[in-house]
Each structure stands twice: as structure tokens, then as C-alpha cells.
Amino acid sequence: MVLFITLTTITHALLFAYDEYFLKRKRNLSVIEINSSLLDGILYIGLVAMTIFTTYSETLSSIYIAVSVLSCLSILKNELIYPLNINRDERIVHACLYVLHPLILYCFYHSWSLNFFHTNMTYWLLQLGYLVLGFKTISYHVIYWHYIHQK
Fold it and tell me: What is the pLDDT of residue 24?
């Protein structure tokens, strides 16, 4: 399980960075795309943070599952707002990200329910690093697309 979560999160981080820093810069994003991506990121990072910083309970489990479904639907709605002229490479990267998104959410949920993060401090620190990268990406997204790119 550790190897699977590690590989999926690393793959996700690399694909997302490639999409965010290279593919999206080749085209202009609409305001709705920019704001939609922020919503997606906040939902996703919130779920990851929940598994890292809280103790599993039935109530939190129900909240996690409901927000996970909302998060998965939120990323799917992007296909409705993306322009039709997105190149093939970006579409392939998005397809891979759409597959990885629920897998990672499930892995974090499963590890959380087994109290894995509390019993394996090294792995908890690796996941904390993943969370920090997520915050960095959201911060970059806000700064670049709202301030730097607009100029």
C-alpha cells in the first residue's frame, strides 16, 4: 500500500506540475478556468489535510466521502468549461489526472481509516510534503494567473 500511494502521489505531482507550469502557459486561461481550478484545488487539499491532521471517526468519514464525491465531480466539470482547442498532450495529461484523483483520495482515506499515518511517522512526513506542494501550487496559481499573467 505504501508503494502504491507513493507512486500515485509522485505521478500526480509530476503530471500536475507539467500541466500547470508548461501546458497551461501555452494558452490563455479564461477567468472561469482560473477560478474553477482554485475550487478544485481547495477541495482536494482540504481532503488531504483532513487525513493527515485528524483522527478517523465515522462522522469525519462521512464528511470525507461526501466531499470526495464533490471533488471528483468538480474536476469533471472542467471538461465542460475547457475550450475545444486544447491540444492532445494536455487532454492526455488531464485524463491521467482524472484517473489518479479518485485513486489518491481512496488511498488517503484507506490509510487514514487504518490509522496508518499515526503509526508511520516517516510516511506521514512524506504526505505532509505532498500537502505542502499542493499549497505551493495553489499559491502559484493565484499569484501567476491573477497578477503576473494579467499584466
Answer: 85
Distance CA 56, CA 58 (A): 7
Let me know if 57 is exposed, middle or buried by CB neighbors in 10 A (0-12, 13-18, 19+).
exposed
Query: How is residue 72 written as a grid cell?
Result: 471528483
d(CA 151, CA 149): 5
pLDDT < 50 regions, the chain: none
Rounded-to-integer distance, Cα 59 and Cα 36, Å:
28
Specify the pTM. 0.87
Q: What is the Cα gyration radius of the chain?
A: 16
The rounded distance, in Å, linking the Cα atoms of 98 and 106 is 13
Phi first, then psi: what are they for 62, rounded to 5°? -65, -40
Q: What angle do CA 12, 138, 38 make, to 5 degrees?
A: 95
The predicted pLDDT at position 44 comes to: 93
Q: Is 114 helix (H, G, I), strand (E, B) or coil?
A: coil
CA dist list (Å): 59 to 65, 66, 93: 10, 11, 35
